[in-house]
Structures
1.
Amino acid sequence: MSDSTLKGKRILGTARPPKATDELRTCAKRDCDTTLSRYNKREYCYAHAPTKFPRLRGRIVPES
Ligand SMILES: [Zn+2]
């Protein structure tokens, strides 16, 4: 056996804390386990996201 073999410490557990972006978030709606994208800041999935704009009749409301 050679003494030049590098011996490293065996990593026990996680060496680095998990990033917040690594955690998987699911829809806040009960019984909905849709995984939200890490880039999606909403609490609900697209199917359960509350509608912001009620029905508008013949009106174009500029987005603010
Ligand atoms: Zn949902």
2.
Amino acid sequence: MKSRIFDFIDEDLTGLKKSGLCRQLPFIDSPQEPRVKINGKETILLCSNNYLGLANHPKVKEAAISAIEKYGFGSGASRLVSGNMEPHMELEERLARFKGSEAALVFNSGYHANIGIISALVGRGDVVFSDKLNHGSIVDGCILSRAEVKRYPHKDMNVLEGLLKKHTSHLTPHTSLIITDGVFSMDGDVAPLKELSELSEKYGCMLMADDAHATGVLGANGKGTLEHLGVENPEIIQMGTLGKALGCFGAYIAGSRKLIDYLINKSRPFIYTTSLPPAVCAASIAAIDIVENEPQIRQDL
Ligand SMILES: Cc1ncc(COP(=O)(O)O)c(C=O)c1O
């Protein structure tokens, strides 16, 4: 008799197809450029996150190729075992300098970084206040943490403050976290980080900003949303990605040395995974060089 165990998959896929919601992978048959071939058709590409055109930049490619020649391709292990090489550490130093933070830690993707930091910082019995339009990786990080999640309407500081007041008895920096995209990934608008920073100080919560779409783009020097808004608060935990404007792959957390040491010890998506190939780190360093030394590309954008 034929097994019926996986019939639910046929049923689900048929349902998705009927409602026009079945996802399919487009095929890009060229490097990431303003014009690409998608499914064989010449197309103007307006949906990529390669905002500065660095994904196919000669200096970025050259850095990756030299690193492959020097280090080979794979890193072979987790950073905590034998996968911690010079480009990983150099990239973290560069990121910390770029962001003006004490230290930085590289994660394998923005998704890893978000699930890794939220689940390390809060846990069962704690509370996370999260903007309703936050990225899916933040949503998943909140679920993984097992903390109670209070979602506030998009950028609504009045509702957020109401929620903070309601939970005051519970709020200590160790048990509560406000979290927001810096630039929201679908709408492209900017989070009210000045107000969020004030609320986090007033109610004694941690605050984290996901600068996936602002790194390399916003602010006079491309440092991100805080620079763009003129917010100076070294306590804000800043996450950003290397795979969008920087044209590479991976992500980072910038913050205090003790926060980074804590994550190295507590963040499971950092601990239990093979580290990025060193060539990816070398390419990211070259991309940061370009962002720092060629402001014209940001002005053109
Ligand atoms: C706001 C935001 N955070 C995190 C991510 C995840 O980053 P990554 O693509 O490096 O996993 C994305 C995009 O995918 C994003 O838009």
